[in-house]
Amino acid sequence: GLMPDLAPRLIAGGAVFLAGLALFAMGVMGGGDVKMLAVLVPLVPPAALPGFAMLLSLTMLAGALLLMGVRRVAGGPDSHWESLRARGRYPLGLSIAAAAMILPLGI
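User: That's the sequence. What structure does it adopt?
Assistant: Structure tokens below.
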């Protein structure tokens, strides 16, 4: 067939969606991030999922550290950018997209 590993890919996407839905319900993750991951995961070959998870973790860490540094320099409660305010949340979509773009490079 065209994609013999379609079932495992769809199962992985469904599992990510359900886990993300639980995180969304707890207020830990945004709904857009949940949908983005659920759509992206079936596009990643099953053998590459651990690498994608590692890349996602690394891009999240790098993004969070970068945001903390920028907040120290240009942030604060009066910032016009919500993400730079002390209570602003990290835009996870940046890390998801970065991991998806880095994965095919094999880095």
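Residues 48 and 103 are 8 Å apart (CA to CA).
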